[in-house]
Design brief:
Strand order of the largest sheet: 4-3-5
Radius of gyration: 14 Å
CATH topology: Hypothetical Cytosolic Protein, Chain: A
Shape: globular
Bound molecules: zinc ion
CATH class: Alpha Beta
Order of helices and strands: EEEEEHHH
Number of strands: 5
Mean pLDDT: 84
Strand content: 15-25%
Low-confidence stretches: none
């Protein structure tokens, strides 16, 4: 059993809407829905839906987690532009995360790369 208590981290924790795991805000990407649809932004006003990976984006879409996060019904079509923006955002995130020491190795993730 590995505990992931990081006493030095002052970053607020957010829950990924895909895997429901709490992670530091800096390790997650925030999605908001605005008048022109869903977008990736840390600063935009509105309800945030936090995601830790592209996998969780798809999981969240299937589970209608965006509906809950944004308190409105979300069409799958509305999420499509998000996928591309998320890919870019996660690329940035991974680059930034590689500069940090790894804390708590997640071993329970399926290694299957389908699709
Ligand atoms: Zn996740």
């Amino acid at each position: 059993m590995v505990t992931t208590s990081d006493t030095r981290a002052a970053a607020p924790l957010r829950t990924c809407i895909g895997c429901r795991q709490q992670r530091p805000q800096s390790n997650l990407v925030r999605c908001v829905v605005g008048p022109h649809g869903a977008t990736v932004s840390r600063t935009a006003a509105g309800r945030g839906a936090w995601l830790c990976s592209s996998t969780c984006f798809h999981t969240a879409g299937r589970r209608k987690a965006f509906d809950r996060a944004w308190k409105q019904s979300v069409h799958p079509d509305a999420l499509q532009p998000l996928e591309h923006a998320l890919r870019i955002a996660f690329d940035d995130l991974i680059i930034n995360m590689e500069e940090l020491p790894t804390v708590g190795v997640a071993n329970d993730e399926p290694a299957a790369t389908k699709g």
